[in-house]
Amino acid sequence: MQQVTLNNCDKPMPAIGMGTVLSSRPGADPSETMKSALLEAIKAGYRHFDTAFIYQSEKPLGEAIVEALHLGLIKSRDELFITTKLWCTFAQRDQIVGACKLSLRELQLEYVDMYLIHHPLRVNETIQKLPVPKEIIHALDIKGVWEGMEECKNLGLTKGIGVSNFSCKKIEELLSVAKIPPAVNQVALRWIYEQGVIVVVKSFNKERMKENLQIFDWSLSQQDLEKISELPQHKGFTMASLFGPHDFVLQLDAEI
Ligand SMILES: NC(=O)c1ccc[n+]([C@@H]2O[C@H](COP(=O)([O-])OP(=O)(O)OC[C@H]3O[C@@H](n4cnc5c(N)ncnc54)[C@H](OP(=O)(O)O)[C@@H]3O)[C@@H](O)[C@H]2O)c1
């Protein structure tokens, strides 16, 4: 697996990661389904996993790692690159270290390799329905929240820190206050490996899992690349699709 060196993160990130969002299937125990699929992914050669507090996949991923160690599929947890994310309800200066420790408890790990701010906004109550009521959505205190993220890194709870779904404008705001610049901005765009971008794929199907790893021994022709570049580009996911079409959220989607 090829790896990419990041700034402010001691460990290189494998170029392909396994996503852990599970669309619910009737009758299946999501936790058990996920644990066995993630174990299968480790067997297939995945070493980079993308989880988040809100995906409810931290616990099954932690259990899959324990079992992989037990079965000898990996010798040490250090062989894995684990990313998790700070959920919007914890996006306040005084809650970030606690939220990171909560994720580590679920994952049964002493540290993660990357901790990301999941979205550039704060929600001040547990989300009970969609779209999220606009009264509970607030602007992010970027300076305070980033200080909390930096504290997580300084405490050794994570090797690297970064953001997700941030516009260029939000990144600029962040860079103007950051002591440690973000190592990653994870966005849900269909970017491709040949553009030098790390991709997170998700399949819990054994064959498709293997198929998604087989991108290193071939390349697209110039003609293919030109055709692809002509395709209309769309965001794979918008903030409004998750939080609702409120003015504040639409503004975040409109920012570049
Ligand atoms: N930071 C963020 O806000 C954010 C947002 C979106 C996603 N993500 C991360 O990115 C991951 C991937 O998200 P996504 O939106 O790209 O994918 P997705 O919609 O979660 O899942 C991909 C779908 O494609 C199918 N699939 C995968 N490989 C395939 C193949 N080779 N052939 C045919 N079908 C295939 C999978 O089904 P099977 O499982 O049945 O194969 C699955 O239904 C997530 O799990 C999450 O970790 C992060």
Overview of this structure, please?
- GO terms for molecular function: aldose reductase (NADPH) activity.
- Pfam families: Aldo_ket_red.
- By secondary structure, the chain is an alpha/beta fold.
- The protein has one domain (3-254): Alpha-Beta Barrel (TIM Barrel), CATH 3.20.20.100.
- Helices cover 35% and strands 16% of the residues.
- The chain contains 9 helices and 11 strands.
- The protein has helices spanning 30-44, 58-71, 96-107, 142-154, 168-175, 206-211, 222-230, 239-243, 247-254; strands spanning 3-4, 13-14, 16-19, 48-50, 81-86, 112-117, 121-123, 137-139, 158-164, 185-186, 199-201.
- The strands form 3 sheets. It has a 7-stranded parallel sheet with strand order 10-9-6-5-4-3-11. Strands 1-2 form a two-stranded antiparallel ribbon.
- Helix 1 packs across helix 2 and helix 2 crosses helix 3.
- The longest helix has 15 residues, at 30-44.
- The protein is globular.
- The mean pLDDT is 91.
- NADP nicotinamide-adenine-dinucleotide phosphate is lined by residues 19-21, 50, 164-165, 186, 188, 200-205, 208, 211-212, 236-237.
In short:
With 256 residues, the protein is an alpha/beta fold. It is built from nine helices and eleven strands. Helix 1 packs across helix 2 (58-71).
Topology, element by element:
Blueprint: E1 3-4, E2 13-14, E3 16-19, H1 30-44, E4 48-50, H2 58-71, E5 81-86, H3 96-107, E6 112-117, E7 121-123, E8 137-139, H4 142-154, E9 158-164, H5 168-175, E10 185-186, E11 199-201, H6 206-211, H7 222-230, H8 239-243, H9 247-254
Parallel strand pairs: 3-4, 3-11, 4-5, 5-6, 6-9, 9-10
Antiparallel strand pairs: 1-2, 7-8
Helix pairs in contact: 1-2, 2-3
The chain binds NADP nicotinamide-adenine-dinucleotide phosphate.
NADP nicotinamide-adenine-dinucleotide phosphate is lined by residues 19-21, 50, 164-165, 186, 188, 200-205, 208, 211-212, 236-237.
